[in-house]
UniProtKB/TrEMBL annotation:
Any coiled-coil regions, as ranges: none
Protein residues bound to Mg(2+) 1: D419, E426
Enzyme class: ligase
Superkingdom of origin organism: Bacteria
Pfam family of the protein (one): tRNA_anti-codon
Organism: Agromyces seonyuensis
NCBIfam families the UniProt entry points to: lysS_bact, PRK00484.1
Cofactor(s) required for function per UniProt: Mg(2+)
Claim: Acetylation is one of the keywords in the record: no
Official protein name in the record: Lysine--tRNA ligase
PANTHER family reported for this sequence: LYSINE--TRNA LIGASE, CHLOROPLASTIC_MITOCHONDRIAL, LYSYL-TRNA SYNTHETASE
Similarity annotation: Belongs to the class-II aminoacyl-tRNA synthetase family.
Subunit-structure text: Homodimer.
Amino acid sequence: MAENETPPAEPTAEEISEQKAVRLGKRDRLNELADGLGGGAYPVALPITDTIPGVRARFITLVDPDTASGERVGVAGRVVHLRNTGKLCFASLQSGDGTRIQAMVSLGEVGEESLALWKEVVDLGDHLFVHGEVITSRRGELSIMVDSWQVAAKAVLPLPNLHSELSEETRVRSRYLDLIAREQARTNVLTRAKVNQSLRQTFTGLDFVEVETPMLQTLHGGASARPFVTRSNAFDTELFLRIAPELYLKRAVVGGIERVYEINRNFRNEGADSTHSPEFAMLEAYQAYGDYNSIADLTQLLIQNAALAVSGSHVVTWADGTEFDLGGQWARISMYGSLSEAIGEEITPETPIERLRELADAVDIEIEHPLAGKYVEELWEHHVKTGLTAPTFVMDFPLDTSPLVRWHRTTPGVVEKWDLYVRGFELATGYSELVDPVVQRERFVEQAKLAAGGDAEAMRLDEDFLRALEFGMPPSGGMGMGIDRLLMALTGLGIRETILFPLVK
C-alpha cells in the first residue's frame, strides 16, 4: 500500500454478516466437490512436504528475476493477499510465524477448471495448500508456480484489515486475530517460550528439581492476598485456588528435595491494572542452606540469562525501541535507610505508629491498619519506589508484615526479605526462610487474629505445614517472581501484552 493511500475502512457488522453468508456458500460448494476437484472445505490431511520458512531459507540465494529452481514443494499457509487477474492469479500465503511466500496460479499450469474454481472459492483468510515449482517472479519475488492446490480450511469470517493497526480492544479480546495480523504479538509468544526455557536451563545447571504442587488447596497460604473460593462436590468441602505454592514447596524441602522450583499459575481475587492480573504465572524456588543474599544472586542470574536468551545481550530492546540495561551487579538498598533519606527523617522499626500515621497523612496516603509495617511500606512506595528504574534489590522489610520470613540476624524489628524493582515495578521477592516451627506458629496465630478481624488477605493457620516444619527444615533461601512481569521487564510492554490470553470483562 502506498504511503499516502488511505486504508480501507473496517467492514460494518452488516457487511460482515453478508460476507459470512457468501463464504458459507463457498464452503458448501467445496464440500459438494469433496470427492472430486477441491477435496472439501476442511480436509483431514494434505500432502505437505515443506514449510514456508523452510522454503525461504533453502532458496535464499534464488534472487534473479524469472528464475526456475527445478524443485517442487508442497506448502500450506493462510491467504493474506489475493489478486486475480485473468489467466494468472496471485496469493500471498503466511505461515504461523509470519513468514510469507507468493503463490502463482496460471491457466497453463492448473487448467481452466481449476483456475475457475480458485476464483470462485478462495478468499482472504483461507488456509490453502499449494504444490508446484519454486521460482522467482518477474520482479524477483520468491514464488511457487502452482500445479495443484487445495483449500485446507475455509474461513467463513473475513480477516480484519491487515494494512491498519488493530484496536487494543480487538488485540486483547481476539488474540488469534492479533497473532495473524501483528508481528509483535507473535514475537511476544516466542519470547515468553525462550524465557521459560532459559529459566529451566539455569535451574537445571544448578541442580534444581522442577515439581508441581496443588492448584486447589484446602487452606490458602504462602502470600498475603485475597483468594478465589470454590467448592468440591466430591469432597463436599470449600477449596481455594492457590495464591502461592510456597507452603507446598517448603514441604518438599523438608522431604529432602533441597533445591526445588515450580513455574505455575496463581490466582488472586484482587484488582487488575497495567501490572496486575487476577490469574498470572509465577516462578518460586527454594534452596536449602541458602539465604536471602544467595537467592538474590540466583534471581539476578536467572533474569540476566533470560535476557541473553531473548536478545543475545544483557541490554534488551523494548518494543518502543528503548534500550534497557540488565547487566552488571544490581544495587541493594535498605527499605528503612532509603525511606529515611527520602523524607529527611530517620525511620526505624522503633518509630511509633502515631508518627508514621502523621507522615502518611502529610502526603495524603489513605491507610488505616494496625501494623506499623504497613505504614512503612506505603510511605516507602510513595517516596522511593517511583524513582527506581534500574534493577534494585530493596532489602530488610518490617517484621510484622512478613509472617513467613526469618528475623534479621543483626537488626531487630526487620526480616531478611528483599523485593526486586525493575522499571519501577516489583518483579520478584526473596527471603531467608523462617524454619523455626514454634516462631512460625506464633506468626500464624497473629495472622489468624487479623483474619478474624476482617483482613481478607491474612493467612490461615496451616497445621499440616507446621507439622512438616516440626520434622526439621534446613536453613533456606526462597524467591518468587512473576513470569508476566519478567516479560514486561524484557520487552517494555504492559501485562496484557505479555499474557497470551488475558482475562478481560
